[in-house]
Amino acid sequence: MSSGEDELIARYFRPLATDPGAFGLIDDAAIIKGSSDDLVVTTDAVVEGVHFLPGDPPQTIARKALRVNLSDLAAKGAAPAGFVLTLALRTADENWLKEFANALGEDAKLFACPLLGGDTVSTPGPLSISVTAFGHVPAGRMVRRSGAKAGDVVLVTGTIGDATLGLALLKHGSETGSPAAQNALIARYRVPEPRVRIAAAVREHAHAAMDVSDGLAGDLAKLCKASGVTAEIKLERVPLSPAARVGLAKKLATIEALISGGDDYEVLCTVPESSLAAFLSAAAAQRVEATAIGVIRSGDGPPVFISATGRPVTLKRSSYSHF
Amino acid sequence: MSSGEDELIARYFRPLATDPGAFGLIDDAAIIKGSSDDLVVTTDAVVEGVHFLPGDPPQTIARKALRVNLSDLAAKGAAPAGFVLTLALRTADENWLKEFANALGEDAKLFACPLLGGDTVSTPGPLSISVTAFGHVPAGRMVRRSGAKAGDVVLVTGTIGDATLGLALLKHGSETGSPAAQNALIARYRVPEPRVRIAAAVREHAHAAMDVSDGLAGDLAKLCKASGVTAEIKLERVPLSPAARVGLAKKLATIEALISGGDDYEVLCTVPESSLAAFLSAAAAQRVEATAIGVIRSGDGPPVFISATGRPVTLKRSSYSHF
């Protein structure tokens, strides 16, 4: 007398529920064991046609849904503890579900973030996936957006703008750039690389941090506003991948578009000068690239981006907004 | 340089974020303070056209989205601690959002379950709301589905079948029954009454519990299966509201339909005979009606429902399934 979704959950998702607190997904709720640590809670949804494209492979959709949340945990200095999943499906296509669940399970294992529970519902609309992820930090040690101080160095992990270019390629196609470079950009749009390994260094050294998901310029503006400061960023310091440099050279996008486009899922943080060497060394030990791109200044207003010729750059929009 | 959704969140949802761990919704994540208690985590989504009807008032949609999760917490014996919200909207209609947020805030206060965080995204599809709710239980004391033992009394709170009749009235209309009775049934479909006040009694006395959301018969079958037992239920003991009795008499629905329809959001639990008086007394002290409807038997297979004439009743389907 099991209902349809119960069988689907048992078949495809129970193997991912490796934590004892998940009770094999046969109960109504999961348990996260009490601890002296604070539990960091973050929730991010991805919607077909908004965060991924219709026809994207189930594997990349699954990975993106989890990874955008892991990116938040990393930026807050938290070690992953588990996640719950709401899956709103038009139809229960078992092949699709199998590939989705397998990829999700691989990432859950890779990032030590087991599935704790969830809800599978039907929808007449687009495929939508909402994840709530949990992480641990020592009590009182979550890294806030609001701690940046004048003089702090502004750093960002990885590279910026690849996902914006990847989405442009998927939407509009292009004959420019090598196939390998194009595929690298598309891969970055579809499957972000959450900087989980840098979480401890962020917790140890950063005054403030957040993940870059809606555009570097807009997200830095949010961090500055929450901290009551502003920032001065050198545009030529913003780290770009070789593929993104090709895209810029071929005028696929402007640098302004790259720093205001979404889906980077890199960690943006501010570190006091005195801790900079220790932070960079800790990041390098974890094989995460982190680049100093500017400095926090006292004052208010959005951060100023300075071009290679020393002029402030005007941005038409600073970030992605849903409304 | 705030983006649209940030302004909407600040205007309508920040007032609900009364817990210090929510950081006024200006950070990327929330904190649930460490404690020796276990944290119970449950997630349930509601989708327009599936769990509520297009055109339902924003107030009732908000209340239902939160309450279906509070119902899970109550059934697990947990005291509410907070929730996160994912809101997928076609458009940002500020009047709608204001009414939605106000009602959500009233319920958050009523049930002592503050908003901790969330994500607001655009969708080309139906309005969808996913809530993940958190509750506290003393370590190891979450009430499982799997603890029922032969001889336990099966109890259910409140009344069964009202929401099924309410949905039928909304979908097909009817001239039967008084307007007041019809409104009562519709109200039960739109706004469940989570039995939060019975959580402590469930934790103290029940061997097994779950909330009834997909139909009494099917949900009891799940509880029995998880516990490795079966059950014998007396159909005439299943508690029905006066309005549901009118609906039955007027043949709006059969009793079989009422015990296999969804959206009851009552607590189903099994209590050993020796604790029955104490459980009923604790429930009464909290002004929650609980009715003994049958008994757990050793064996397997779905529970048997016995009619007033002593015959087992055959159910065409035992519960709502999305697929």
Describe what you observe in this structure.
The structure is a homodimer of 323-residue chains. With 323 residues, the first copy, chain A, is α+β, with helices and mostly antiparallel strands. The first copy, chain A, has helices at 4-13, 58-75, 94-110, 162-172, 179-190, 199-205, 216-227, 242-249, 255-260, 276-285, and strands spanning 30-32, 38-47, 79-89, 115-122, 128-137, 153-157, 208-212, 229-234, 266-271, 290-298, 304-306. Chain A contains ten helices and eleven strands. Chain A has a six-stranded mixed beta sheet with strand order 7-9-6-10-8-11, with helices on both faces. In chain A, β3, α3 (94-110) and β4 (115-122) form a beta-alpha-beta unit. The longest helix of chain A has 18 residues, at 58-75. The radius of gyration of chain A is 20 Å and the shape is globular. The interface between A and B is large, with 81 and 80 residues.
**Multimeric status of the protein:** homodimer
Shape of chain A: globular
Give the beta-strand count of chain A. 11
Determine the number of helices of chain A (DSSP H or I, runs of at least 4 residues): 10
Alpha-beta content class of chain A:
alpha+beta
Instruction: Flag low-confidence runs of chain A.
Output: none
Please provide the ordered H/E string of secondary-structure elements of chain A: HEEHEHEEEHHHEHEHHEHEE
Strand content of chain A: 15-25%
Helix amount of chain A, in percent?
25-40%
Biggest interface and residues each: A-B, 81 and 80 residues
Question: What is the terminal-to-terminal distance of chain A?
Answer: 44 Å
Overall average residue pLDDT of chain A: 93
Largest sheet geometry of chain A: 6 strands, mixed
Biggest sheet: strand arrangement of chain A = 7-9-6-10-8-11
Radius of gyration of chain A: 20 Å
